[in-house]
């Protein structure tokens, strides 16, 4: 079940609903427990026009950013930049914390120049989205989240200056915990595999063969395949196919492109070849997937 705007607004007091409707596309924050009936336990690939993040204080969640999967535990925060493809794989029944989304336009460029956001890897398309917060710092972080809720529900505020200032304070604090972009990458094979994933996310519409990515990375196709297999137990071709499927599912659900256009855009396949490819990997035809929200 996906959360609809009308359902979100119904949770707010009547006096705040008109303001919340206006604000929602630019900024929103809520306590997860307040939206428990609407939280989807699993959601297929999708994109959003805003950056969002979730702070977990209880329970756990499994989410993906592109081809990478992350487990969110208590005292972690997870960011997804705008337009980044993502999925929700699992939410525990006791999941609690905060969910927030924001549009970049809420930040006054004079106060917060765009250059300042480059300091935060978790806001970057290819950066590390998951941050572990020390237990000793959680009270301060949750205080900032509560302040955001207070400001969001303050009917006398007509702009985002206070909200954007609190967000920036939060980003700088979280940035102090985020010391390494990919702290678990310890050998050449895992580093190359991550670079391959990054290039797949950037070039999936331009490059359709493993050999193209091997050339881009400056290695042989065999060496790339060996490193990917050693690191994640999959072939380089399987990883390419996984990315094509993630993108295809997102386009089928969120775009008006027809099936032929999607097939050509992602894999240079004609409609019948793309339909066979999609059904072989998912068990459904592209049309069935597009028309059935339960898949």
UniProtKB/TrEMBL annotation:
Tree of life domain: Bacteria
Keywords: DNA-binding, Transcription, Transcription regulation
SMART domains: HTH_ARAC
Entry GO MF terms: DNA-binding transcription factor activity; sequence-specific DNA binding
Alphabetical list of PROSITE patterns matching this protein: HTH_ARAC_FAMILY_2
Short name of one Pfam family: HTH_18
Gene3D superfamilies, A to Z: Homeodomain-like
Domain HTH araC/xylS-type: 194-292
Nucleotidyltransferase recorded as keyword: no
PANTHER family linked: ARAC-FAMILY TRANSCRIPTIONAL REGULATOR, TRANSCRIPTIONAL REGULATORY PROTEIN
Protein name: AraC family transcriptional regulator
Species assigned in the record: Confluentibacter flavum
Lineage: Bacteria, Pseudomonadati, Bacteroidota, Flavobacteriia, Flavobacteriales
């Amino acid at each position: 079940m996906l959360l609809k705007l009308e359902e979100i607004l119904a949770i707010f007091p009547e006096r705040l609903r008109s303001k919340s409707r206006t604000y929602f596309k630019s900024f929103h924050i809520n306590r997860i427990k307040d939206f428990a009936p609407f939280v989807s336990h699993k959601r297929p690939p999708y994109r959003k026009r805003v950056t969002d993040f979730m702070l977990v204080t209880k329970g756990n969640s499994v989410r993906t950013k592109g081809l990478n999967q992350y487990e969110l535990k208590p005292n972690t925060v997870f960011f997804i930049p705008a337009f980044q493809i993502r999925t929700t794989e699992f939410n525990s029944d006791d999941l609690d914390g905060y969910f927030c989304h924001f549009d970049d336009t809420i930040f006054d460029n004079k106060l917060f120049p765009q250059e300042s956001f480059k300091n935060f890897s978790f806001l970057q398309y290819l950066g590390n989205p998951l941050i572990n917060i020390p237990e000793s710092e959680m009270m301060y972080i949750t205080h900032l989240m509560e302040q955001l809720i207070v400001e969001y529900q303050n009917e006398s505020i007509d702009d985002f200056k206070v909200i954007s200032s609190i967000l920036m304070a939060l980003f700088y604090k979280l940035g102090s915990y985020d010391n390494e972009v990919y702290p678990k990458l310890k050998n050449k094979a895992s580093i190359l595999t991550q670079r391959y994933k990054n290039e797949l996310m950037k070039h999936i519409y331009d490059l359709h063969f493993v050999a193209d990515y091997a050339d881009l990375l400056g290695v042989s196709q065999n060496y790339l395949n060996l490193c990917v297999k050693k690191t994640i137990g999959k072939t380089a071709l399987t990883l390419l196919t996984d990315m094509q499927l993630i993108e295809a599912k997102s386009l089928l659900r969120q775009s008006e492109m027809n099936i032929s256009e999607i097939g050509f855009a992602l894999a240079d396949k004609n409609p019948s070849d793309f339909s066979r490819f999609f059904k072989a990997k998912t068990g459904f035809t592209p049309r069935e997937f597009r028309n059935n929200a339960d898949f």
